[in-house]
Write a structure and sequence with these properties.
- The protein is mostly helical.
- Helices cover 95% and strands 0% of the residues.
Length: 77
Amino acid sequence: MRECQAHCQETTASIDHMMTTMSQAQQSNDPTQMREALEQAQKPLATMKDHIAQCMNKMSMMQQMQGGMGSHMQQKK
């Protein structure tokens, strides 16, 4: 879970940075700067997508473990 928490913090910081970069590019109204801002956003977005997939897999495994334990406990009653 700590790893997912770290990923969430990294993602939040990355989103804040991308939003600032894109806002500045938009305000410049310079097509080259806007294109560059979009290109710079692609790598962090790919990293975020990977982190989300990792966290989703961990949550899915935890749910399966809890579900398995819960059904096992109910059978013992």
